[in-house]
Amino acid sequence: MTDSKYFTTTKKGEIFELKAELNSDKKEKKKEAVKKVIASMTVGKDVSALFTDVVNCMQTENLELKKLVYLYLMNYAKSQSDTAIISVNTFVKDCEDSNPLIRALAVRTMGCIRVDKITEYLCEPLRKCLKDEDPYVRKTAAVCVAKMHDINAQLVEDQGFLDLLKDLLSDSNPMVVANGVAAISEILETSPTAQQSLEMNIGTINKLLTALNECSEWGQVFILDAISNYNPKDDKEAQSICERVTPRLAHANAAVVLSAVKVIMKLMEMLDPHSDYITMLVKKLSPPLVTLLSAEPEIQYVALRNINLIVQKDQSVLANHLKVFFVKYNDPVYVKMDKLDVMIRLASENNIQEVLSELKEYATEIDVDFVRKSVRAI
């Protein structure tokens, strides 16, 4: 039978019945009762009166039941902050459980309980999980540090969590490194004081570049964005980073490609503009950008916004690919507008005839805004 049955009851006196079932000795009955509570919570009923009874079900070996109780706890801990303290002991115990899934679940829930009183009790278990032997627990703990920094930044910085987070960048597991980078980026966005302790050096950058090859695609995006914030000491260092990032241009995920382009464009500023290496980089940059323009319209739009910025900085990257920006009849309006922008930026003495004949065509289109823009461009 499916779980839909839990959503169908709306009896009076239901809370009282659930209370009795939650305190039952039978494990199955308890689990059924918690499912009913979660179902009521999902449809928007207030079941906060059962807080103590549900939290008492936390001490169980059953992973499914534990997940449900943690879900309930995340939802109601803020409104029941005084009672929520009783759950702290179970968190501490779960963070030392032999099953890594339970340890990670406890850490993840700890980060989602936004109650100041509880946060300080969770520092010790979190510290242990950041040094856990299982990479899944460590990667979950990394994200938890960023969440706790959001709740109480001073506490996280005083307790030395930023140093522990920085140590994760040297981890042997690429997913842990990626989550460490993501957490650091999030903290740096909100806290100027964390800047000194999370300063990147070439050693750290090399470790990130090593992890880059084995990360998931979103992990790669986080790492590339972090690398783009680093300023190399000299052109030799900049070239070495470029060489290791260039293979990412061939990635299937558009976000990875654009992040790699961002890193390379930034590092190109440090290199000699007349060198052969720059010429080779420019040749490598254009194909992936052109490829993005044959993707679905939403990705085309994001690519075009980025291309617009790239062309403003350096026209040579796409100077020979003007035809790609010619508008197709079935392009959505937002894509047409951006293609037109890029086309105008790429116009030069060599291709002005082509551009003008295209613009003449566009002047007879049906979309008024697009026609106005085309006429203005002429």
Task: Describe the structure in your own words.
With 378 residues, the protein is an all-alpha fold. It has 22 helices and no strands. 65% of the residues lie in helices and 0% in strands.
Please render the helix and strand layout as text.
Elements: H1 14-22, H2 27-42, H3 51-56, H4 63-76, H5 81-84, H6 88-94, H7 100-112, H8 116-119, H9 123-130, H10 135-151, H11 153-158, H12 161-167, H13 174-190, H14 202-212, H15 217-228, H16 235-245, H17 254-268, H18 276-292, H19 297-313, H20 333-346, H21 352-362, H22 368-377
Helix pairs in contact: 1-2, 2-4, 4-7, 7-10, 9-10, 10-13, 13-14, 13-15, 14-15, 15-17, 16-17, 17-18, 19-20, 20-22
Sequence of secondary-structure elements = HHHHHHHHHHHHHHHHHHHHHH
Number of helices: 22
For the terminal residues, how far apart are their CA atoms?
67 Å
Largest sheet: none
Strand % is under 5%
Helix percentage: 55-70%
The low-pLDDT segments are: none
Shape: globular
Q: Structural class of the secondary elements?
A: mainly alpha
Overall pLDDT: 86
| Number of DSSP E strands | 0
Report the C-alpha radius of gyration, rounded: 27 Å
Provide a short characterization of the protein structure.
It is built from 22 helices and no strands. By secondary structure, it is an all-alpha fold.
Key traits:
378 residues; 65% helix; mainly alpha; 22 helices
